[in-house]
Specification:
The protein is of the alpha+beta class. It folds into two domains: about 1-45, no CATH class; about 50-145. It is built from five helices and six strands; from the N terminus they run βββββααβααα. The strands form two sheets. A three-stranded antiparallel β-sheet has the order 1-2-3, with no helix packed on it. The radius of gyration is 19 Å and the shape is elongated.
C-alpha cells in the first residue's frame, strides 16, 4: 500500500528523511503534487494481551492507556510530547518482556513509576484510580510514602 498525502490525497509522495525513534520509525515526507511536507511514525505492532484483575483478557490498547495518563496529568505542566514519550517507553518495556500476555498490574506499575518521577500530583491521580483508593486514609498513606 502506498502512502497518500493527507492534504491532497495524491499517491505521489517521497520520503525525505528517515530516523529511528525509541519505539517507532519517523519519516519526513513530501507530496510532489501539492509540495506540502508531513511526518509519519511507523510502529511495529504485535498483539499484546492484557490480563485484567478479574481474569478477563483484552487486547492492549495504547489509546486507552494514553487517556488515563492524560487525565492524571490534566492541568499540570506536562506536555503531550512528554506523555507520548512516557507511553512509548512503557510500551517498549512491555514488548521487551518476551510474552504476549501481560497482567494489568504490570502495566499500571510501569506507568506509576514513570509518573512518580515526573509529577507527584499526576502520580497520585493515576494511583488513586489504579490502586482503587476509596477513602482519604489511603490517600494520606500514599502521600506519606512519597
Amino acid at each position: 500500500m502506498q502512502m497518500k498525502c493527507p492534504f491532497c490525497l495524491s499517491k505521489n509522495v517521497s520520503v525525505l528523511e528517515t530516523r529511528e525513534a525509541e519505539s517507532s520509525i519517523r519519516r519526513r515526507r513530501l507530496c510532489k503534487k501539492c509540495n506540502k511536507r508531513f511526518t509519519t511514525h511507523e510502529r511495529v505492532e504485535t498483539d499484546l494481551i492484557v490480563i485484567k484483575k478479574d481474569g478477563r483478557r483484552e487486547l492492549f490498547d495504547r489509546e486507552k492507556l494514553k487517556v488515563g495518563m492524560l487525565k492524571a496529568c490534566e492541568k499540570r505542566s506536562i506536555g503531550i510530547n512528554t506523555i507520548n514519550k512516557m507511553l512509548d517507553k512503557v510500551e517498549q518495556e512491555l514488548r521487551k518482556l518476551n510474552t504476549s500476555e501481560i497482567k494489568s498490574k504490570v502495566i499500571g506499575n510501569k506507568v506509576i513509576s514513570k509518573l512518580k518521577n515526573l509529577d507527584e500530583v499526576a502520580y497520585l491521580r493515576f494511583a488513586s484510580v489504579y490502586k482503587e483508593f476509596d477513602n482519604v486514609k489511603k490517600f494520606k498513606e500514599e502521600i506519606k510514602r512519597l
